[in-house]
Design brief:
The complex is a heterodimer of chains A (about 850) and B (about 160). Chain A is an alpha+beta fold. Helix content of chain A is about 30%, strand content about 25%. In chain A, α10 links the parallel β14 and β15. Chain B contains 5 helices and 5 strands, in the order ββαβββαααα. Classes of the chains: A alpha+beta (about 850), B alpha+beta (about 160). Chain B: GO terms for molecular function: anaerobic carbon-monoxide dehydrogenase activity.
Chain lengths: ~850, ~160
């Protein structure tokens, strides 16, 4: 921990977070409970999909296109069929009649182009890695061997990997219908008036590089059939959505298809998908009548797990001389890749509502063009649209501060919504229900030791220290709790945003909670147990949480977008309340009292003013025995509930980052990082802190390390973990986290969601810090990821009046340099 | 096909294996030791780390034939007499896992790290675990867990030594 952090404040904060102590009283909600999930995970008694072995199981392997764009003129699978252990080999053509088209559930405009998307290519491949043929064999080695015996003739077609080039008149066409998938516009207020005669206008272009989500568990699928019943096990975040979509795609009736998400080793959006491999596993098991398994290798995954981000953002701010914002204009290009997958077009739209950030303004104007390129499709990745939006506004706010000679924190204060102004209707038409940006920021500044670090920065600049200090701030909000169904409907999303729960009291008084959410590391079993334990007055250990199997949990919308607690956790609470209502009726009957006279406390129903009562466990047994139930009351003590929120929730916070940038080598090290997040009421502080830590690391990954790089022919150059760098323990410091708690008013738990907060906030905080360190060198932007080479080149190129004497080398400047980056760099210019 | 003898979590197996079979696939597909997962195919992630004759090894980078005559300990063999290893407890106590996919490898690597440095600094833990990647935790709690595990292991050692005198 860095010495400049205020040790007393940090200790206080840690104590508050529950690490050093737990709140007194019996309440579970708010308590830093260690997780129930851990027992199987720390002992290796897990059910990852790849662990599943079924009798007679076969293994699938896919031959994948080595070219980004080509016509398939011949596929010869005959030699492969004769290889040892090979049971079947299929080309796309072999399955053409039954493979259907992978679904896109978010047609964002009336005139959107949704190309046919066969799970296995039939006539043309449109990205490197697209499946061309599939082998089914008796073990995974033999399946891999046989791939080599498949002959494919490709007629190469021109690749197009850059969005701007893809929109040119003479660009190679990814689809005959053209490379523009859609244009989506959104506006509020009079944007022309806001920019007319604006005293200050900041115009910048930022590149959101393409990312590979990199969940630690590679994707895996097991499909099996028994007559006309099918079961699909998949490392998925969305068993419920997947079942509906697979039924529609494959024609297997929904009631004959069970989808199970066993233990899932991380998702971050990448498992929020209906994949080619899931569809093909079902088709193959249907053809062969035998169970099949497919597990991807990491290098296969880097090619074919949907990618994230990949946007080109042109953002303009109009402001007054005192820093107050007048308006924001955004012109966005979003790379769809070669096809539209489940929610591909919707991702940039989620960002559309967030470019205004936490700020007040008179006008806003947003245009997004979705562009096809010959690359793996993009789709949801942690934060989905909101990290991109937050990055652009928070980078631009720093440029505004620089332009006006104001402190970056001060410039934010001048435009942000003050805590007295909530609920606040934003220029985007959202109602931010609650928040307190001042409190979170003040706390973060104190924990960080802001003034002391600024003093050190000045000192280093004056000393011409080759290692410069940069300080970066980002203040953010996001919209979570996806989502009110009617809002999703108005945005053309194909489904609602409700969530479902069933709460069952068992005859012995134990409790089963069945949730429609589908966790993959978020600790739902623990948090949902805490909610049910409090609501029903039963011990935490008496609650089991069941999930991730459509045969057990018959309804659900699954886990993504920080929606699980905010929608699913609230559904659990609602189901508990219904159970209690029934228990109260039963208690009144048994105690011969009026229901209104029966009080509930600590798991017992008592007649007001007497000691006479029944525990909820006794009532569960009575409801099971059903010997003496009131008229019209059914046996059993259970209930189900569906919660559809009226509004999104809006977590917010302030993150501060200090980096040391070695101007001689370009090396950049994070010295300290402070995050103060307001995620509303907290069910389990330990889990919240863990989610924040992980989110920060992932956002730092984008800022400093990660990028999916393609060559001009569309080949992915970062196919392994040796090329695509995610942060290791040695790359990161200890994070200091703090909280403020402004409960959400849109749900009875007051919760807001936390899964994406860290990722949204950290990327701009880190890049702002890197740029801050380099400003004396005349560097005012660094394109992500801020690699040592890129930083070194910028410093060398600038050769400007600098605090340290740095010699120019004559090397060309890396992209993204310059006072006003009005022209964008492309991924090909990556100076990786 | 070569015949090998390997002891895994205290049980000796004799197996005929293809020369190219990876140790991790022997463990997972043949012996049912699925507690050791595979996260990559380039030995970068460390999810498949096991103890091979007491030292940590990425089992995706070891051929089964190379393990002939060796003693392998996987995460499933770590608990003794139904009691978790202190490092398993420490990971739970410090909330050092979320999805848990990297956890077996992380715990095995941490145990080996402590053989060389029984009381590692934060920096030493971060350096020592560089070859094990986690995508969920941001490593803060993993570092705390390894240091807690180290303390508890050293305490346990001291307790064992006292009654012996």
């Amino acid at each position: 921990m860095s010495e400049e952090l205020d040790a007393g404040l940090v200790a206080e904060q840690i104590a508050e977070s529950g690490r050093l102590g737990e709140p007194s009283g019996a309440r579970e909600v708010g308590r830093a409970r260690r997780r129930k999930e851990d027992a199987r995970l720390v002992t290796g008694r897990t059910t990852w999909t790849d662990n599943i072995q079924l009798p007679g199981m076969l293994y699938m392997a896919f031959l994948r296109s080595p070219m980004a764009h080509a016509r398939i003129t011949r596929v010869d699978t005959s030699a492969a069929r004769g290889r040892p252990g090979v049971v079947a080999v299929y080309s796309g053509q072999d399955l053409a009649d039954e493979q259907g088209s992978l679904p896109c559930a978010w047609p964002v405009t009336e005139d959107i182009v949704i190309p046919d998307h066969p799970p296995m290519a039939v006539r043309e491949v449109r990205y490197a890695g697209e499946a061309v043929a599939c082998v089914v064999a008796t073990d995974r080695y033999k399946a891999a061997d046989a791939l080599e015996a498949i002959e494919v003739d490709y007629e190469p077609l021109a690749a197009v990997t850059d969005m701007t080039e893809a929109l040119a008149e003479d660009a190679p066409l990814v689809h005959e219908s053209g490379n523009r998938a859609f244009t989506w516009k959104f506006a509020g207020g009079d944007i022309d008036a806001a920019f007319r005669d604006a005293p200050v206008v900041i115009e910048r272009t930022y590149v959101q590089q393409r990312l590979i989500p990199t969940a630690m568990e590679p994707r895996a699928v097991v499909a099996t059939t028994d007559g006309d019943d099918f079961t699909l096990y998949s490392a998925t975040q969305i068993p419920h959505v997947l079942r509906v979509m697979l039924a529609l795609t494959t024609g297997i009736p929904e009631h004959k298809l069970r989808v199970v998400a066993p233990d899932v080793g991380g998702g971050f959006g990448s498992k929020l998908q209906v994949t080619a491999e899931e569809v093909l596993a079902l088709l193959v098991t249907r053809r062969l009548g035998k169970p099949v398994k497919w597990t991807e290798s990491r290098s296969e995954g880097n090619l074919t797990v949907h990618h994230g981000r990949d946007q080109l953002q042109r953002i303009s701010l109009a402001a007054e001389r005192d820093g107050r914002l007048r308006g924001v204009r955004v012109d966005l290009l979003a790379d769809m890749g070669a096809y539209l997958m489940l929610v591909t077009p919707g991702v940039p739209l989620l960002g559309a509502f967030m470019y205004n950030g936490i700020y007040k303004m008179d006008a806003y104007d947003f245009t997004c063009t979705g562009v096809f390129t010959t690359k793996m499709p993009t789709d949801a990745y942690r934060g989905a649209g909101r990290p991109e939006a937050t990055f652009a506004i928070e980078r631009a706010m720093d440029e505004l501060a620089h332009e006006l000679g104001l402190d970056p924190v001060e410039v934010r204060r001048r435009s942000w919504i003050t805590h007295q102004e909530f609920p606040y209707e934003t220029i985007c038409g959202l109602t931010y229900d609650s928040g307190n940006y001042e409190a979170a920021t003040d706390k973060a500044l104190a924990l960080f030791g802001y003034d002391k670090l600024r003093a050190e920065q000045t000192d280093r600049r004056e000393r011409r220290d080759p290692v410069q200090l940069g300080i970066g701030v980002s203040t953010y909000t996001e919209m979570c709790g996806l989502a009110p169904s009617r809002v999703l409907g108005s945005l053309s999303y194909g489904a609602g945003g409700w969530e479902h729960a069933t709460v069952r009291m068992l005859p012995t008084g134990k409790v089963e909670v069945v949730t429609g959410t589908s966790p993959h590391g978020q600790g739902h079993e623990t948090a949902w147990s805490q909610i049910a334990a409090d609501a029903l007055g039963v011990p935490f250990g008496d609650v089991a949480v069941l999930h991730g199997d459509t045969a057990i949990s018959h309804k659900g919308m699954d886990t993504y977008g920080s929606r699980s607690l905010v929608v699913g956790g609230v559904a659990v609470l609602a189901a508990c309340e219904k159970v209690k209502d029934k228990a109260r009726q039963l208690a009144a009957h048994m105690l011969e009292a009026a229901a209104d006279d029966v009080e509930f406390a600590d798991g017992s129903f008592t007649v007001r003013g007497t000691a006479e009562g029944k525990t909820i466990q006794e009532l569960a047994l009575a409801a099971f025995a059903a010997h003496d139930l009131p008229d019209g009351v059914e046996p059993g003590l259970d209930a189900e509930a569906t919660f559809d929120p009226d509004n999104f929730s809006f977590p917010h916070g302030t993150h501060l980052c200090a980096v040391e940038v070695d101007t001689e080598t370009g090396a950049c090290a994070i010295r300290s990082y402070v995050a103060v997040d307001d995620v509303g009421s907290v069910v389990n502080p330990l889990i919240v802190e863990g989610q924040v830590h992980g989110g920060i690391a992932q956002g730092i990954g984008q800022a400093l390390f990660e990028e999916a790089v393609h060559d001009s022919e569309g080949n992915l150059l970062t196919t392994t973990m040796a090329d695509y760098l995610i942060p290791s323990a040695a790359d990161l410091p200890d994070f200091t986290t703090g909280r403020t708690e402004t409960p959400a008013t849109s749900n009875p738990l007051g919760v807001k969601g936390v899964g994406e907060a860290g990722t949204i906030a950290s990327t701009p905080a880190v890049v702002n810090a890197v740029v801050d360190a380099l400003r004396p060198y005349g560097v005012h932007d660094v394109r992500m990821p801020c690699t040592p080479e890129r930083i070194w080149r910028l410093v060398a190129e600038a050769g400007a009046p600098a605090p340290a004497a740095t010699a120019g080398t004559g090397e060309p400047a890396a992209s993204g340099a310059g006072e006003t980056t009005t022209s964008a760099s492309t991924p090909e210019e990556s100076a990786r | 096909m070569p015949r090998i003898t390997v002891t895994v979590d205290g049980i000796t197996y004799e197996e005929e294996v293809e020369p190219r079979l990876l140790l991790v696939h022997l463990l997972r597909d043949r012996l049912g030791k699925t507690g050791t997962p595979v996260g990559c195919d380039t030995s970068n992630c460390g999810a498949c780390t096991v103890l091979l004759d007491g030292r940590s090894a990425k089992s995706c980078s070891v051929l089964a034939v190379q393990a002939d005559g060796s003693d392998v300990v996987t995460i499933e063999g770590l608990a003794q007499g139904g009691e978790w290893h202190p490092m398993q407890k420490a990971f739970h106590t410090e909330h050092a896992l979320q999805c848990g996919y990297c956890t077996p490898g992380m715990i095995m690597a941490a145990i080996d790290l402590l053989r060389d440095d029984p009381d590692p600094s934060e920096e030493a833990v971060r350096k020592g675990l560089e070859g094990n990647l986690c995508r969920c935790t941001g490593y803060c709690n993993i570092v705390r867990a390894v240091r807690r595990g180290a303390q508890e292991m050293s305490q346990a050692r001291q307790e064992r030594e006292v009654p012996a005198s």
